[in-house]
Amino acid sequence: MNYTLHQLQVFLKVTQCESITKAAVELFLTQPAVSIQLKNFQDQFDIPLTEVVGRKLFVTEFGKEIAIAAQNIINEVNAINYKTMAHKGQLAGRLKLSIVSTGKYIMPFFLTQFLKENQGVELLLDVTNKSKVIQSLEQNSVDFSLVSVLPDNLKIESVELLQNKLYLVGNTERVFRKKSYSYDILNELPLIYREEGSGTRSVMEKFIKLNNLPVRKTMELTSNEAVKQAVIAGLGYSIMPLIGIKNELKNETLQIIPVKHFPIISNWNLIWLKGKNFSPTAQAFVDYIRSHKSEIITTHFDWFERY
Predict the structure, then answer these.
(1) Among 45, 60, 175, 232, which one is most buried in terms of CB atoms within 10 A?
(2) Which residue range(s) make up the domain with 126?
């Protein structure tokens, strides 16, 4: 056998994505390049690693075993690289975060300079909904999570980053002339919800229940981006985080509808399990956040603070 580290990396990514196309995107390679590397790797085994059924790629049981071995090999290679950099006095290692979907508008700004200053740090960032974010934290498979609703069932520590402001929004077809509307307007506007498990939905439903608000639910969608596009298309209205609609407000494809006692406010928090033993990389990152938080907010979120 004469497989290369690159082939191991490609094969592992294919098994994780269960798709050559998706693997190519994540590896920044062309689809034919991934297919060639996968074939060259497969040719070294008499037993199939993958199979295609109805145009869908599946990993065989043997392929799953080889994927585990490939992951172990890649981990060892990474460990060698990290140790080499550490001996040179450079910070090196993996930084693993899980963030809720709207966190993608926030977290990159708290990461960029840290990663530029520490080029030996490898970032693993999972963007998903709140329930999966909490699950990854509970399983201790990440260093940190970013949430706007703190979990009730976990002992955690946290650093508060930024307010999360939720407004009632719609497209710009209808003109709302009052400076402030009562909650009654929610009874006449069909609302688009996020899916169960979403932090945005959790905050929204808690506010609705607390104030006994009359609402008309019209549909449920699985991402803030999908909700945004549905609102722009005129399929309904929604209560959305301000952080994700900056460009749409600027371009006047969305508008904030002024409602009494809005916005609904929660807080973005970087959280981790209480008592967690940080790696040097994780400790350096949380120290960086504590030291530079105010500067980052002033530089990148001045527009947000003005609303």
Answers:
(1) 232
(2) 91-162+267-305
